[in-house]
Specification:
α8 runs parallel beside α10 and α8 packs parallel to α12. The N and C termini lie far apart (63 Å). This protein has 3 domains: 3-18 and 232-418, Alpha-beta prism (UDP-n-acetylglucosamine1-carboxyvinyl-transferase, Chain), CATH 3.65.10.10; 22-226, Enolpyruvate transferase domain (UDP-n-acetylglucosamine1-carboxyvinyl-transferase, Chain, Alpha-beta prism), CATH 3.65.10.10; 433-476. With 494 residues, the chain is of the alpha+beta class. The protein has a 4-stranded mixed beta sheet. A 4-stranded mixed beta sheet has the order 2-17-19-18, covered by helices on one side. A 4-stranded mixed beta sheet has the order 4-5-3-16, covered by helices on one side. It has 17 helices and 26 strands.
Amino acid sequence: MGSLLIEGGCTLEGEVEISGAKNAVLPILAATLLTEELCIIRRAPQLSDVRFMGRILESLGASVHFEGDTICVQSGKIHGRGDYNLIRKMRGSVCILGPLLARLGQAEVSLPGGCVIGARPIDLHLKGMEALGAAVEIKEGYVCVRAEKLVGNQVFLGGKVGPTVLGTANVMMVAALAEGQTMIESAACEPEIVDLALFLTAMGANIQGAGSPIIKIQGVRSLHGADHEVIPDRIEAATFAIAAAATRGNVKIHRARCEHLGAVLGKLREVGVSFTRERDSLHVHGNGAIGTVDVTTQPFAGFPTDVQAQMMALMTLADGISVITERIFESRFMHVSELARLGADIVIEGRATAIVKGGRQLSGAPVMASDLRASAALVIAGLVAEGKTLVKRIYHLDRGYEKIDQKLEQLGGRVIRQEGTWAKSSASPYLSSSELLGSASQLTTRKWTDRWSSKKTVLRTRYRLLWLSRVCRRHWNPFWKPPKARVLPSWKSG
């Protein structure tokens, strides 16, 4: 389990290039299941989630080849059952359901997993597939969908918090091979949906209206291979823009599409951050004081929920009170307790509102990332805190940010990646007992040649913990008394 050691007080300056969008490449990779021909995906981010999606495709029978930021996928003979052990680890994997149904007429996919940021049901996905003629059954933790014939229809995908992005992607992919025309009402308008529509169109699909609330798809008999370049990641661009503002830096962000960042740039302008829009880049000048602002997350083109945590970290620096309201996910304030460990003054009102009282100087401390975007917020807070901050569980960070530690270093950030549970730092020089036991259990899984030394380490660790518990019992228990000396009988003492 890796961690990032961040020394605060630095100013980010220089240039950085944004990687491809994770939320765009995952459904695009799933869409390669719609054809037997070769598909080439360029500018794909090198992330753990993308590699994992490749493993899922391979488990279905596809051939997947990674070469730098290019992915080649050929889905020749595939089957329609998504393995639980793979699907449960990543929510984005649910987008294989639509392509498998469209191509094979049936699919069995385990209910998905992912970050713990609230309930994210897939009922709208299934509702859309049922409208196109599929029979849906949830059995033993698997979603089973079957259709003798898929026929276009009118589908409404509005939910209680707005349209569903992955649901729109799933229904689009099913409708691409359905007979007749499908009209999706209350469709997601996110740029990632537009990018998926462009890829499907390159494969031979007939799609109109992507990026608007109404999408029309005229089904075709078959799709062919395509060569596609993934759009830049708007969330990564927003994260670096906020980091530049927080550190009062001067950063030029290449491959940042400002048309995808309207709500974020509007809020940054309100708090006093100046920036310059250029042809294919964004130049952020964070050289002034940070003001307060109220933020409410909404579907695109509103303020994105995936930038809420980063914006909260920025608001801890503002001199005043800011109110942040989360309208998309009900459990996306798990980073608040960790920001409080750094000295932030944040109060949660109800389940959807956080009141941030800024102006306090943050101080470094060990913190734990709870999800992908929360980890980015903790990194930003660590960059401006006094002293050193140790961000643990950065596997969350690696799911959505390509080489973020290296990118921050090239901008002047003092960031060190530490791999393994045994990594120590001046911010946290000692390991907890749970970490010691976790490390000991990991040691026992080594190769046969190192097994004896592993056993000795485990025994030594257990002995130290036992000794520590006895010392604590002796010094902290007011009723503890030393055992009485044993008096031998007179006939034995002689």
